[in-house]
């Protein structure tokens, strides 16, 4: 029963992709889409849903929808900072690369991955190393980027997945 | 009006790409070069791609909406793959035992 539901969720995520990418809505192409999505769902259906952990799927999806606009804004702001650095004539005096370490309170695997990828996406910081206990090593380009971590981003990632 | 917005978006994207290219050449070491390489390219492609998506969207037909959606999918995929690739490169550097460049007299690693 649970497996069937996982398959259905994966199918419902993949089918719109098929429709957008194919762009043809006649019976033949839609049928091909249903068959292909069915095949792919049958062998990868347990990947996505089980990683999130079943029941909280709608909640996680809503959390991501709230998180992504904030992340885009952060990326844009720190891109401007980065752009200024890389075009600045005295760039070497402004940057101060360092590796910082901190311990994150996040427990969930997917939350850790989301947090690590968000750090890497935000200009000025790159995740060097993460482990399952939430030990982070981050390469930061200057002290301003280093001070922003873990900070607000961790709280927001925590809010997506609920307090765990 | 739409054309104006498209030009602004694509031009802003190009500025970010330029900054990325210049940054790769100017930053002092392997790790700090990855910052402009991975990130400014991401921001640049977001801006340039949204400009292009806006450009093909009008006049609104089914076909043009689908083309815009495909262009936006490129952005989504860049967003997923770019941090992964950056992380793989950093990891390769760490495994090879490369020490990050420190500012002379700068703050030591804590």
Report the order of strands and helices of chain B: HHH
Q: From the alpha-carbon coordinates, what is the Rg of chain A to the nearest angstrom?
A: 20 Å
Residue-averaged pLDDT of chain A, rounded?
78
Count all strands of chain B and give the number: 0
CA-atom Rg of chain B in angstroms: 18 Å
Provide the structure class of chain B: mainly alpha
Helical region count of chain B? 3
β-strand amount of chain A: 5-15%
For the record, give the distance between the C-alpha atoms at the N and C termini of chain A, rounded to a whole number: 27 Å
Beta-strand content bin of chain B: under 5%
User: How would the global form of chain B be characterised?
Assistant: elongated
Mean pLDDT of chain B: 82
Low-confidence stretches of chain B: none
Strand order of the largest sheet of chain A: 1-3-2
Helix fraction of chain A by DSSP (H/I, runs of at least 4): 55-70%
Structural class label of chain A: mainly alpha
The first-to-last residue Cα distance of chain B is 52 Å
Shape of chain A: elongated
Largest sheet, strands/sense/barrel of chain B: none
How would you describe this protein?
The complex is a heterodimer of chains A (164) and B (110). Chain A has seven helices and three strands. Chain A has helices at 2-22, 27-52, 57-87, 91-94, 109-121, 143-147, 151-161, and strands spanning 98-103, 125-130, 135-140. In chain A, strands 1-3-2 form a three-stranded antiparallel sheet. In chain A, strand 2 (125-130) and strand 3 (135-140) form a beta hairpin. In chain A, helix 1 crosses helix 2 (27-52) and helix 5 runs antiparallel to helix 7. By secondary structure, chain B is an all-alpha fold. Chain B is built from three helices and no strands. Chain B has helices at residues 2-26, 30-57, 62-95. Chain A binds chain B through residues 17, 20-21, 23, 72, 75-76, 78-79, 82-83, 85-87, 91-92, 95-101, 116-117, 120-124, 126-129, 139, 141, 143, and chain B through 15-16, 19-20, 22-23, 26-29, 31-32, 34-36, 38-40, 42-43, 46, 63, 66, 69-70, 73, 79, 82-84, 86-87, 90-91, 94, 100-103, 106-107, 109-110.
